[in-house]
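As agreed, record copied across for absentees:
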Amino acid sequence: MKKKFIWNPARFFFHYIGTEKLEALAKEGWGVEKLRLGGLLIQLKEDQPKDVQYHLEFQPIQNIEEDTLQTGEGWELVDAVDYVQIFQGSPEALPMEAQYEGLLEQLNQEGRSLGKYTIISSLFLILFFFLHIKAGWAVVQMILLGGMLMLAITFILMLALYILNKYRQYNLKNL
């Protein structure tokens, strides 16, 4: 049995959760089997060509242990990993409604935390910079220089995560 993998950018960015490509592949004889790498890849298996609908759903991390989303008539859960779920439905099934309020609230909370960490790391970076300039001993300057490098890396990482979080929130609001 042949297998195929499809990249799922929605896993990180929430900017495209359309399933038209999966539905077209199902008509060609490729059915969704599993979510791989935390939902980053969708594994397809060779199957009989069929006309189906797919729905990709996200849920907040705190709801992962709870039951999965209530499905409507004609829908079944194919696979769920982390906070990504994929459902398969018959062509006659009514489209599922996406529920993103909980996920958006989680992203807002993460954004507030990331913003605080970004500000704190930038303040310490500035403090270490001024201490490095004012320090008279070479050993202290070297220690402060190492601290500045570590803080600069922390600041860049926190800023990148903060920007990614804001981008995800923006995309989720516009779905």
About this structure: The chain has four helices and six strands. Residues 138-173 form the longest helix (36 residues). The two ends are 36 Å apart (CA to CA). The helical segments are 10-13, 20-28, 101-134, 138-173.
